[in-house]
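User: tokens in, sequence out, please.
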């Protein structure tokens, strides 16, 4: 299975045409259609003619559909002031490549980058008559807020962002009986093969995390958790290091868990990217993991550039006790 490719490049030769198409369509929707880029209002004309300059301080993402050579969509993540919320703008996918999830892929990556920057929220505006974009934004968790732009028919939306933090051993202990155990129980209840059979008792889950806290204190396992806007834990991932002298370049990712209430907004991908970045920064050059074959997690790993090394039949029982195959994955870093 192939996936859309997303790249950051405000100087891409296709970007002016994409932004021109966006602005021309937008003007037509507002009832002030123009025939050419030269007739656009100056600020919009500048974006279409020289996006590298217009968005010099911002993040510009482009998406290429599977099987295509050139990008057919774009989005801009505007730089935010200190402590502020960045704004997502100029989301555009060419009509002939719509209905392929490209707009969602662009939004998910923009939100991931906003969250990685430490922003408390992301915001955007959309015309009230644009039903499909509104439906996408609301599906991604955006909600209407008080307007910061008084133009008629313009809806202002904002989405609080999950914050990913590395947990100290004491923090793991503190969250073991509540948030972390709840994530493990939720994963087992939803059918994930994570080393436990259903039903998983919360106390057993808490005991497992207490053991993880000791491993973290010993320096052999690192833990990251995603804190939801309400303060609860929405996801977690761990990284273990090989103790053998000939394997110190290698790490293993385990227990990548996202609560069912937080799925569908790119949190698993952000957790994975966070642990990969830390592994590379601390000298690891190879990561490995295993996951149940044909599980939703496989789509995540493949989309993130992981390579399947092989499948082992009847490797582990699922929560219901049925033996399932497992696929081994690896990713080179650097």
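Assistant: Sequence out:
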């Amino acid at each position: 299975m192939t996936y859309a490719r997303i790249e950051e490049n405000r100087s891409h030769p296709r970007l002016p045409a994409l932004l021109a198409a966006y602005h021309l369509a937008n003007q037509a929707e507002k009832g002030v259609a123009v025939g050419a880029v030269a007739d656009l209002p100056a600020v919009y004309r500048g974006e279409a003619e020289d996006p590298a300059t217009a968005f010099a301080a911002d993040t510009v993402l482009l998406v290429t559909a599977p099987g295509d050579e050139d990008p057919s969509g774009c989005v801009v993540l505007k730089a935010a002031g200190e402590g502020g919320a960045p704004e997502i703008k100029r989301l555009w996918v060419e009509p002939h490549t719509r209905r392929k999830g490209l707009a969602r892929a662009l939004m998910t990556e923009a939100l991931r980058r906003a969250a990685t920057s430490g922003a408390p929220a992301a915001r955007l505006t959309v015309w009230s008559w644009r039903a499909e974009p509104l439906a996408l934004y609301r599906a991604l968790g955006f909600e209407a807020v008080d307007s910061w732009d008084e133009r008629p028919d313009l809806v202002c939306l904002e989405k609080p962002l999950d914050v990913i933090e590395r947990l100290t051993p004491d923090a793991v202990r503190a969250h073991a009986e509540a948030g972390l155990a709840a994530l493990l129980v939720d994963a087992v209840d939803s059918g994930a093969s994570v080393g436990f059979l259903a039903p998983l008792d919360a106390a057993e889950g808490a005991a497992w995390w207490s053991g993880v806290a000791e491993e973290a204190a010993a320096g052999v396992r690192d833990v990251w958790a995603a804190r939801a806007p309400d303060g609860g834990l929405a996801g977690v991932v761990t990284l273990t290091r090989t103790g053998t002298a000939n394997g110190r370049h290698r790490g293993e990712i385990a227990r990548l868990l996202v609560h069912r209430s937080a799925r569908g907004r790119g949190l698993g991908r952000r957790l994975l990217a966070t642990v990969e970045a830390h592994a590379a920064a601390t000298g690891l050059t190879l990561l490995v993991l295993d996951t149940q074959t044909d599980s939703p997690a496989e789509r995540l790993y493949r989309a993130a550039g992981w390579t399947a090394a092989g499948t082992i039949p009847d490797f582990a029982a699922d929560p219901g006790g049925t033996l399932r195959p497992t696929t081994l994955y690896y990713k080179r870093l650097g």
